[in-house]
Amino acid sequence: xxxxxxxxxxxxxxxxxxxxxxxxGNSDVNIIRADDLKAKFCSIVNDKSVCVLExxxxxxxxxxxxxxxxxxxxxxxxxxxxxxxxxxxxDENKLPKACLHPLSNNQNSNTSPILTSVSGLRSYNKNxxxxxxxxxxxxxxxxxxxSADNNAFxxxxxxxxxxxxxxxxxxxxxxGHSTNNAILRNGDFISTTHSKYCVESxxxxxxxxxxxxxxxxxxxxxxxxxxxEKNKQSSNTSFIKNNLWWITLLGGLCIIIIAMYIIxxx
Length: 266
Hints:
Helix content: 10-25%
Low-confidence stretches: 102-116
CATH class of the largest domain: Mainly Beta
Distance between the termini: 97 Å
């Protein structure tokens, strides 16, 4: 992960490491303030799978124009305002793959191949936070801007690939990288000026992996059921083995009683 400034400067966030932002002269990243206050404002920890922002002493730190009081999870494409110094979080290892075909060529086409699954966009927006926008072979999703400075885009399938199309010059980023047409992959973050979505593919995302239909969960369920059956069989055989002596004694006693009854009545 890395941070980009408005001046195109790059600040690397070390893997399994952290960087500290402050104006005290001893921080990793120097923050310029109008006054002469010397302090540490926040830190960003890179834990490989996630970046965590920690704010110190109620400093003025905003993520996507929302003030952060203590901590927040950061995603590629997020805009971070630290005491009016703007940084953009970018995943340099996830570059958008260009999509050369226009989406309209394959939109609502009867000849489109039917896929066995659909993808979706998980919303990180205020009005529909957590909701997922389904995208399949017969339907697309169009993000309609809620304000004049926001940007629209469309997500649909193009030759079995989930792809995004947006107007040239739009302020739309994939994992922090500017793009127009691009093929989307699971876990990609789409961010505009005021909106954010995460691409989720079936059975691979952080949300859908908990679904009972996930292949791994099906496998675990089958192993669990077969394990129960094996345990039942082994428990039955072990019961007989462990109690064979008194079963034999009880059977012999029954035979003696039956024999004595027959002799007495003969």
